[in-house]
Structures are given as structure tokens and as C-alpha cells.
Amino acid sequence: MSEELERILARLTEPDNAVIQQATAELKQAFKDPAIIPALCAVMTGSQNPQVRQSAAVMLRMRVRKHWKKISPDHRERHTVRHSLSQLCAVLVKHETPDRWPALLALLNQSTKSNNPQDRQVGLLLLSKVVGSNPEPFKPHYKQLLQLFGTVLLDLNNPTALYYCILTLTAITAYTGTEEMNLMRSLIPKLLIALKHLIQADQDQASEAMEVFDELMESEVSIVVPHIAEIVRFCLEAVLKHKLLQPILQVVFPILSAAPPPGEEDPEDEENDTEGDSENPKHFAVQVIDTMALHMPPEKLFNQLLPFTQACLSSENPYERKGGLMCMAVLAEGCADHIRTKMLSSMLQTVCRSLSDNNQVVRSAALFALGQFSEHLQPDVSKFHAELMPLLHGYLSAVNQTKIGHMTKAFYALENFLENLVFKLPLFFAPFEFFRVIIVIIKKKVEVELKQLNKIKTIPLAAECVQLGLNLTDAVDDPDLRRCTYSLFSAVSDVSPDCLAPHLPPITTVMLLSLRSTEGVTVNEDKQFVLLDDDDADGEEGDVDLDEESETEVDDRDVAGYVSVSFILSLSFSFM
């Protein structure tokens, strides 16, 4: 209908009276159609003829003003229409700041404070769209908006209004400053209550609204800190109440136990692992379980978690077995009391069996789990030292010397055990202490002998090297050559000072000449300043050339002086 209506309105602008009369008759007939309102809107926004658009806008205003109650409720109150109109306003706000559109601010102020719930809902929808499209121009109004949010969040019977209110709050969070901190902080308790009601009304909207916490954590974490306990409790209650733990684990465990692409290894299993946190899906899957272990009741978590873990540990796939062990490892910190009192023995048996697994990735995961146990399950885990220490000793003894990247996990576990055993293991400590002292003594003796041996090997060549350096210095006057000979003399003075002693007079003479030399030091100040003050393009190029030449001269010709100073210091210490 919109195309036909546009043709009628176009004929109304013709200079022919007969055409205008015919178009007027057709227009009266078109106005009897209930779809005239959407058609006028389409022409008003889509026509290429400005006169036609103006005519459509005028007729639409007159039609709505006189016949509002006769308009179909679907056309008046359909949410998609409101949503589209609010998006249209948002696009306009991107190009026109709110201060240049006072009618918009007046409409927002009137609708969001209306006593009619439908009007408030429409006003908050419009507010969320225009602020979300361009939050910064609204910054002067942030205090007023935050005060409005404090009122809207109490309207728990209007979940749609709560949803749009939280979306607007999310949009402005990154732009708030210190002046709005207190107002933002006071909204958190109301925000949590509003989200609880929104979850019951619409979980999809609640899920999107909860992104406000992500924005607060990234932008204004100081606002969240005083309420962090309530936020964590709220999140955990939402997970448990809506039975989300099982779906979460169903997603996490396949990621945790997935095999890497063919020909590749997991980052933690690579030989050159740098021990840094790797940003990969498995790393985040482990973090999810670790976070749940830290904040959820152990009994409820283990009831859901154990079937997944047991299935992984009994699998033929080594990466699934590894996933089960990694899960057990990260449970040690958050569920320490529960494991120590009820499950320590059985979990240790599982880990110890995995130390002899035929796959290296499984053994590495078992070592990591053992290290976590020894760190977080003390002192109970130390009671099993008689079984665990021989296993670690045997593992270290049988290690493949060509692949030792996983050994860091073995030493991690061993270190944690030994830190907590103290004097409980005399059978292990006595020989270890004895051999430690012996190794230190042997190491010192070997270092001394090797140093003397190196000197003995170089003494026959030292005298020849000194003489060669002196001959070259006398024959060739070159700064680079002098620099090399001074380095040579410095090395000889460290290895064999006696070989250098007979040649000290000529060497010191050459060094003193280098120290007194002014090669490359003289600066032509007049030319330099003339060129620096020149505004012509050619002069600028001259500046660059002059700077490059002067730097080259200093580097090439004056460096011998610096090397000679270094050599004098070395020589002084050698003959002290």
C-alpha cells in the first residue's frame, strides 16, 4: 500500500487541477483502510521526494491526533514498532548531540517518570537505545540518570523496565568518573535484587543484563569490591537454584579432555614450556572448575563432578585421563577440608597409579596433581610419605634424559613434600645432606682446577699474542685496530699477568697517547648552528648529513680511548 500511497501523494503536487482532484478522491478512499498509518510511516521515511515525505508527515500527525483511539492496538503498542522507532532515535543521536535535540530530553524525562508502567517501559527502551548508541554526550546527565535508575530498580513488577534500565547502566559504566562513584556503589544491592526478579521473568534478558558485572569489573572494580561477597553468593545461588551445574560441567569436561590437533601438544606438555598461563580453552575450562571449587559447597559440587571425573579416569584415551587428573588437582585448594577428611586416600591412590601410566601426558598431569595435593592438603598428605617418596624417587631415577620438560612438575611435588616433612624422614634426609656437602666441595675444587688448567693452556700463546698486538699497533694507525689490541691486552692480563709485565712500557705509552688524542672530538660549532637555524629544505638535509658524519667519526675514531680506560682498570687489578 505504501507504494500506491506515495504515487497518490506525488500527484497532489502536480499543477493540474484535474489530477489533484482525482488524487484527493483516491486519498480519501485510502484513508478508510486501517493500514493507512503504517503506510504513511513508510512513505514518510522512505520516499525520495521531500514534498511527498512532508505531506505524509503532516497527514500522519493529523490522523494520529484525531483518530488515536481508532488506531489498531497492534499498530499502537506492538513492541517491534517501538523498538524500531527507538533505534531510529539512536541513529539520530549519533549525529546530533542530546543538547541539540531538547525535545528528546524532555520526552525521556517525562516518559521515564510517568505513573503509567507502559509509558515508563517505552521511555526506558528509548533511553537504553539512545544512550547505548552514544554514551559520552550524556555524561552531564549521568547523576540524574543514576538517581532515576535507583527508582526504576525498585519497580520489581515491571521486569521489562528493569531490563532496559540495567542495559543503560551497562552502557554508561565505562564513562563514569569519581563524581558518580557513590551513586553507582549504592545501586549494587538494588541491582542484585532486580536481577533475581528478572531471572524469574525472562532468563534470556537476565543473562544479557548480568553483563553489567563484567563491565563493572573491567571499568570500575572499586564499585564492586565492597559487594563482592553478595555478588558471588548471588551467582552461585543462580547456578544451583536453576540447576545449571550439570550443564556447565557437560560443556567444560569435553573441552578439558580434548586431544590437541595432530602433531601438536598442549602448551603445558611442550618441552619448552615457559610456565606462563596459556590463553587456550583448556586453561579456561580448568579455571571454571577451580572457581567452582573455591565458592561452591563441596558436597554439592562433588555429587555432580565425580561421575565426569571417574569416566575420564577410566577412559582409554590418555587426554581424557589427563583431564580427570587436572580436575582432581584444581579441586585441592577450594575443597581441601572435604578431601582431607573424606577422600584423601582414594584420590592419592588414583594419582599414584597414574604416575606409572604408559603415556607421558598422563604422568605429567599426575605429578601436577601430586604437587597440588602436597601444597594444599597438609599436614594430612604428609602421613603418606612412606608410599609417596619412593614413587617420586623411582620416577626421578627412571626419567628419560632427552625429555625433561615435565621434570619441573616432579620437583614441584617433591619440593612441597620436603618443605612439610622437616625431620620426619631421617632415612631420606641423612644421605641427601651428606651428598649435598660433598657435591659443593667437589664443585669448588673442580672450578679452581679448571681455571688453572685454562691458564696453563693459554700461557704459551700469551706472549706471542702480546707481541703481535704491539707490532700491529706500531705498523697501522687505525682506531678499530687499537680497540682490538687493548681488548687483547686486557684478556692476557687476566689469564697470565706475568707474560704482560715485560711489555708494560710500550703498552702504557700507546694507551696514554690514545687518552690524550683529540681524534673525532673537535666540533665545528659555527657551521652546526648555522645549519640548525636554516629554514630551507636544503639546509634541513644538511643537518642530517652533518649529524650522521659527526656520529660516525666519534664512534670510529674515539672508541679506542674508552677501551684503553677499561684496559687500564683491568691492568691495575691484575697487578695488585
UniProtKB/TrEMBL annotation:
Name where it mostly resides. Answer: cytoplasm
Give the signal peptide as a residue range, or say none if absent: none
Give any GO molecular function from the UniProt entry. small GTPase binding
The organism's superkingdom is given as: Eukaryota
| UniProt biased composition (Acidic residues) | 263-278
Where, subcellularly, is it found?
A: Cytoplasm; Nucleus
Region (Disordered), start-end ranges: 260-281
Q: What cellular-component terms does GO give this entry?
A: cytoplasm
Protein name (Swiss-Prot/TrEMBL): Importin 4
| Organism classification | Eukaryota, Metazoa, Chordata, Craniata, Vertebrata
